Amino acid sequence: MIKINIESKLQRTKINLEDFQENFWNSIKSIKFNGKKVEGGDRVYEWNDFRIDTYSITISEALRLICTNINIRNYIERVLPNKVPNNDIIDNWEQLLKYIVLLSPEKLEKASLIRANLSVEEIKTIKKVFAYDDKRDGHIIPLFINLNFRTCFYCNRNYIGKFKNMDSITRTTMSLDHFHQKGDFPLLALSLYNLIPSCDVCNSRIKGSRDNIEQYMNPYSDSYDFHEKSKFTFVNQNSIKLESSDLKCRGYIRDFYINEIYQLHNQEVMEIIEKSRIFNGKYLEYISSTTGESLENIQKYIFDVDKNEEELDLLPLAKLKVDLLNLNEG
Predict the structure, then answer these.
(1) CA nearest 232: which of 242, 224, 245, 223?
(2) pTM of structure
(3) Which end of the chain is more exposed for a tag (fewer CB within 10 A), N or C?
(4) Number of structural domains the chain divides into
(5) E strand map for the chain
(6) Side-chain half-sphere of 110: how many Cα atoms within 13 Å?
(7) 87 is a domain residue
């Protein structure tokens, strides 16, 4: 529902986008897998049925090993033309892995259109390398926590902030949804722009592993415009509905149960209507003239919302409030 402007988030941390991407990549690159010692072998280990001569291997080396399977290699070559190395130089396999991890939203979309003609076992092999669930807490979530995301980008209802527990350990209510399902596209499971900050309700209870769910467009995409094509409007005096003339937007609204869930917020809708009645345009102008505050700031204080589209994720129900205020002003 809300566009993700990661560069805007990074401005508050004084880290530029290139550095953040590099930090994310370095965190993924540091992942290692431990092998099991082969009985009777001297310094011979086994990982995922591959013989290795060290106890642990890097994720780049694991990628190289699984690409010795010609079917897996051919699949990755179809997904990423001219990117798979023709030799065993580890630096080249690192570059391939980095390319996968930092695929843009647009390239992720193209990659998702390539279907893998692989056996169940071959898909499991890819999943062992790109095993998101095993890497989430140690290598991925900490980087996203520092960006201070505030609300779910799918529903704009629930907070996804961070907090410290009794042991002063930083925790978060944020979940990271795979825009392209990790079960269907395991090769993309660790890709930065495939990870959407969301709440557990949208990620697990609503989306989960459902097939053929309409997600409209990757929220990281520069051309993401769901928030422009879909607007909340009044159904009656205390009920609202999110509507759109765009077919894909309507599919998203349907599949994420947006209108059904937003009926829980009829009380907030009534409060917006009442505040709009009391603090009408002339009254706002009077307050502005007597206090010296801008109309934008006064409206922000009264309705607890910033109309800046890049700030819609900062507070729950921000899009709802902005749309209804615009309706009243119109």
Answers:
(1) 242
(2) 0.88
(3) C
(4) 2
(5) 32-34, 36-37, 45-47, 50-52, 56-58, 162-164, 170-172, 175-178, 195-198, 230-236, 239-244
(6) 10
(7) yes
